[in-house]
Amino acid sequence: MPLMETVKYKTIMLPFIRIAAIALVTLTMLAGVGCGPKLIKGRPPFVSISDMRLDRETLKTEFDITNQNGVPMTIESMDITVMINTTELARFSSRETLEITANGTEEVNVADSPDDFTRNLLASLDDGRLKSLSFDLNATAMTLEDGRLVSEHTGYLYPVPGRPGQYRAAVTQAKGLVRDDNL
Q1: By CB distance 3.0 to 4.6 Å, which of 68, 72, 91, 151 could disulfide with 44?
Q2: What Cα–Cα distance (Å) separates residue 65 from each residue in 4, 51, 151?
Q3: Average pLDDT over the chain, rounded to whole?
């Protein structure tokens, strides 16, 4: 008789163990999906000055536009302005479509003829009268995915040692890139 009771006990417990195992696996998978990494979406592109140089009468500026999102970004139009106090140093405006991969960077260039005041400001960096120039960079992007995205930065422009007419930029504060989520 004890043999029959053991078999009966195992037969009853087997479906319960199977259901419990399936439930445990299902809950584990659902927890993994809910707690997994979240894609960042809707953040404005980070725009920086990667190179600036004054060649005779032309100021050439190279901007890096970085997609901070985990999904591709399609920029339909872009306006970038670099100001030193009330003086416009550089401006880029385009209505051409620019595709940036997720977490990728694209480069855009602009060449302009600066006025005498701007040339004198940059010359004061070259000859050492000024160590740096404070700037404000404002960028507005119209994207296919998120509409209008705005970013604002402040920073400093420095001369590149040993390369007259060439300048580098350092962003000190990104005003328009504050996270909305609490981490």
Answers
A1: 151
A2: 75, 13, 11
A3: 84
Q: Mention every residue, 6+ apart, whose C-beta is less than 8 A from residue 56.
A: none
CA 71 – CA 66 distance, rounded (Å):
12
Measured between alpha carbons, how far is 93 from 138 in angstroms, rounded to an integer? 12
Outline where DSSP puts E strands in the chain: 46-55, 58-66, 73-84, 87-94, 98-100, 105-112, 133-143, 147-159, 166-174
107-153 confidence digits (pLDDT tens): 999 999 999 999 999 999 999 999 999 999 999 999 988 899 999 99
CA distances from 141 to 29, 38, 47, 76 (A): 38, 23, 10, 7
d(CA 69, CA 43): 6
